Amino acid sequence: MVAGHPRSQDKGGMTIMADPLEYIAPPDSFKGNVPISLAVKVGKQIFVSGVPGYDRHGKLAVGDFSAQMKQTMDNITAILKATGTGWDRVARTRVFLTRAKDFDDMNLIYVTYFPHGKFPARTTMYVHALPKPEFLLEIECEAVLE
Fold first, then answer.
1. Concatenated DSSP letters for 64-119?
2. Which residue from 8, 92, 97, 111 could staple onto 2, CB 3.0 to 4.6 Å apart?
């Protein structure tokens, strides 16, 4: 370890400096009262935390899956924009749904964020619950910068 740089590594007598972490918090984004970063940038990679359908004032579109899905995707759009990228640079998404019946509606909205039909790798999971009972979904993603 190099003094003052906690993420350095010694590789066979050679010091390699790891990329510093940059914590992303767009000014109009709501993250609630939880100890998370909305996104973390390291090198040319962006890691976006699980995002529910809150608007910037902390209001959740309760009970309406389509409204929560659109708000979630718009929230991620804002986070990606704050990191200097967009949906066209997203390499992987993970979608967590609490109701299997919402899968088709999720796909109908999801595709509209990828106008050229080039979709990232995706895993969709049905989960018993999310951190708040009114959450119908949460999405996380990873993107790369050009």
1. -HHHHHHHHHHHHHHHHHHTT--GGGEEEEEEEES-GGGHHHHHHHHGGG-TTS-P
2. 8
Check residue 30 and report its DSSP letter.
-
For 115-146, write each residue's pLDDT tens digit: 888 999 999 999 999 988 999 999 999 999 97
Q: Where are the domains of the chain?
A: 8-144
pTM of the complete model: 0.84
Rounded to whole angstroms, the Cα distance separating 37 from 101 reads 30
DSSP 18: P
pLDDT digits over 20-43, tens only? 999 988 877 776 778 888 999 999
Q: What is the CA radius of gyration of the chain?
A: 17
* Backbone phi, psi, residue 125, to 5°: -125, 145
Neighbour-count burial of 95, counting CB atoms closer than 10 A to its CB (0-12 exposed, 13-18 middle, 19+ buried)? buried
